[in-house]
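FIELD: query
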Amino acid sequence: MCNQAIMLITDGAMEDFESVFEEFNWPERRVRVFTYLIGREMTFAQNTKWIACNNKGFYTHISTLADVQENVMEYLHVLSRPMVINHNHDIIWTEAYMDTVVSGQSQSCLLTFKNTTVPAF
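FIELD: result
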């Protein structure tokens, strides 16, 4: 069984869309909703937080560019919890990491990781 998640990146939600979640996601709450409120404006923060918290997700406020790296991976901590709904406890998660290209590496080293798949538009 797979985890299903929606990641909502927004500058605010004018309503909590309770009727939509009630119809399509409740009572099982199989799809987790993670919300990222972008910007310094906090007018609709309560609705954005409600959406995440009532759908087994996580709310994050990202007010500056410096907050992105620190906060964007918080969803992994939530998804890495045991899948209690299905009583599956044999899944092992590892932390995601940010990769950087080290200056001075040769072109041939980088080509070994080349992706040859066709992009889907």
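FIELD: remark
The longest strand covers residues 31-38.
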